[in-house]
């Protein structure tokens, strides 16, 4: 018989095995990290990589695919694959939106680093 919380009616203790190991090792709250893995103070630390390069490369690849599809629109229509053109257009458009978002994020992170350094 399965002994998880759903079948036995018990409530989970709320402490994960990782949290229990951290407490047993005396690492609870050391170096500004709580047992949940988040920085002390409740906020999440930003990732060290801003993602602008990855999103830019993906957007350029979608643009190349869109240009190739436009050149082959007659063949795509004949074969019933005209939706590929729409997919490439959506990929390029969403890539532009994503590029806007990650550039803004990168700029905010840089402004935060500059203001904390002063």
Give a description of the structure.
By secondary structure, the protein is mainly α. It folds into two domains: 1-42, no CATH class; 49-113. 63% of the residues lie in helices and 0% in strands. It contains five helices and no strands. The protein is rod-shaped. The N and C termini lie far apart (61 Å). Mean pLDDT is 77; it is low at 27-35.
N-to-C CA distance: 61 Å
DSSP, total strands: 0
Mean pLDDT across all amino acids: 77
Number of domains: 2
| Helix/strand structural class | mainly alpha
Supply the number of helical segments.
Answer: 5
- Residues in helix, %: 55-70%
Percent strand: under 5%
The succession of helices and strands, N to C, reads HHHHH
Strand count, sense and barrel status of the largest sheet are:
none
Oligomer kind: single chain
Over all CA atoms, what is the radius of gyration? Answer: 24 Å
Overall 3D shape: rod-shaped
The low-confidence parts are 27-35
